[in-house]
Amino acid sequence: MLELSPVLGLPPDDVIFGNSSVMGKIRQKLEKAAGANLAVLLRGQSGTGKEVLAKLIHAQSPWRSGAFVKVSCPAIPGTLLESELFGYERGAFTGAYGVKPGRVELAHGGTLFLDEIGELDPSLQAKLLQLLQDGEFSRIGASDGRRINVRFVCATNRSLEREMESGHFREDLFYRINVLAIQLPPLRDRRGDIPTLVDYFLDTYSRQLERPVPALSRHLLADLARYSWPGNIRELENLMKSYVIFGSEEDLRAAMQPGQEDFLDLEIPSNGVISLKKVVRAATRQLERKAILRALETHQWNRRRAARSLSISYAGLLCKMREAGMPPTRGPRACLDVVAQGAS
Ligand SMILES: Nc1ncnc2c1ncn2[C@@H]1O[C@H](COP(=O)(O)OP(=O)(O)OP(=O)(O)O)[C@@H](O)[C@H]1O
Ligand SMILES: [Mg+2]
Hints:
Bound molecules: adenosine-5'-triphosphate, magnesium ion
Strand order of the largest sheet: 2-5-8-1-9
Largest sheet: 5 strands, parallel
């Protein structure tokens, strides 16, 4: 929970950002944000890499020689969090036998990373606001204030707007932490980066666990590219770890629950109106594409046998493959391209 610099173990930048345009934009933002003494708010679903980016911001900032101190707001019970964050003086409460500096003090000259800030107890939000505004705080039981100089990076996977509406998050605090906002995309919105991440995780864990690892089949790579990844990069990383240990593609396939696949990865128009007809048509098309791809892979891309297994004519299969933009013959790149089209 408490992590002091140096920040080690970050993946190389090329892996962190991949080749997708959405991550390219984030890379540019991050380069500009890292050097500015302004609070950064990282938003994104669980497992999208908010902590990785927080560490990278620290590593690229002028505060990199200071500590990187992480505070996981929900992990520490409310009553303890105040003393963890701000520290206490001797005799401040029963059991306070000595003086204890809080984490904000340990972060002096470095970066304070407040993870899951949306879950910060309302009673502590006011004290944090004061720290953000004036750089001042006081240890519990202290008669005087202390000044510190830290770079704030906060992260949340909750909608802070909704938390404010329901009165759980202070609006004034929101505007203090949300100066430079960076929104991380879910993995399914950067599918093109999956092969890079797969290579990186297989290589890293194969070396770390000292297990040689067989290359993944084309079919499985296609499955990985098509899956919806509700757990984002963390889920991909865990699957690759399991593959390094068990070496079983079957296990990976079973872990990618069919119910989770991205049949309805539709873009919602800005007016929020979705035509049910369009949804059904898109879902049918994606399901059809998936069934055809499976049949082709099962029959080593023998189209006659694939057509028979799907109970359609050979000509019918060729027509559907053309409609789906599928290549007439097998090929690893072609296979991934088909999957990516299917997801759009
Ligand atoms: N771009 C990336 N390249 C390589 N590994 C990554 C990348 N982003 C995240 N990871 C790995 O994925 C896992 C989850 O990342 P991280 O903890 O940063 O996500 P998070 O957004 O903070 O998730 P949560 O909201 O659940 O705390 C970590 O093990 C991390 O090392
Ligand atoms: Mg996190």
